[in-house]
Amino acid sequence: MNTTNPFDEIEQFLGRTPFGGERARGRDLRTADIDVAEYADEFVVMADLPGFDRDEIDVRARDDRLAIAAERDAEREDADRRYIRRERRHESVTRTVGLPTNARLDDATATYRHGVLTVTVPIDVLDADEGRRIDVN
Predict the structure, then answer these.
(1) Does some domain include residue 15?
(2) Reduced to 3 states, what is the DSSP secondary structure of residue 2?
(3) Domain tally for the chain?
(4) Which of 10, 33, 105, 127 is within CB 3.0–4.6 Å of 61 for a Cys-Cys bond?
(5) pLDDT at residue 44 greater than cutoff 90
(6) PANTHER family attached here (predicted)?
(7) Domain residues for 38?
(8) 118 CB neighbour count, 10 Å cutoff
């Protein structure tokens, strides 16, 4: 007995993708899975972006936000085949993360290896024993 959920077919018809995102006009819209870690001297964000090239990834830091975006056209070329039907799609992945107030954005770095983007943002170290000095006028 094959039990199917009729709502699964409706979701496919409406454009939901198996990635948990939504589909709009041939575009897959989804967020990147991330890990965020804060250490004593740096803030690190690791984002899964499998299948993207470095030049398709955009990382921007502004004020208290880190924005990661990746965009590509997913086309498969096969010169030996005569296609009866061929679907092209555009894939877009975004994610925004809040940054600590003591982040040093000018010293931030990003690396991309094996489908994982790692963004490292140094942060000013505060001595917990002494706290932050406030000048008195």
Answers:
(1) no
(2) coil
(3) 1
(4) 105
(5) yes
(6) HEAT-SHOCK PROTEIN 20 FAMILY MEMBER
(7) 21-122
(8) 14
Cα separations (Å) of 130 from 113, 126, 127?
A: 39, 8, 5
* Residue 130 within a domain: no
Q: Which helix (H) or strand (E) holds 11?
A: helix 6-14
Both tokens assigned to 39: 């250490």
Q: What is d(CA 99, CA 65) in angstroms, rounded to the nearest whole number?
A: 5
Of the CA atoms within 13 Å of residue 75, those in its CB half-sphere come to 6
CA distances from 3 to 6, 8, 42 (A): 9, 11, 50
pLDDT tens digit sequence for 84-124: 766 666 788 999 999 999 999 999 999 999 999 999 999 98
Q: What is the DSSP string of 49-98?
A: -TT--GGGEEEEEETTEEEEEEEEEE----TT---S----EEEEEEEEEE
CATH classification at residue 27: 2.60.40.790
Q: Is the pTM of this model over 0.85?
A: no
Confirm whether 8 is domain-assigned. no
Look at residue 6 and tell me if it is in a domain: no
How far is it, in rounded angstroms, from Cα 112 to Cα 48?
Answer: 10
Buried b / exposed e along 38-52 (16+ C-beta atoms within 10 A): eeeebbebbbebeeb
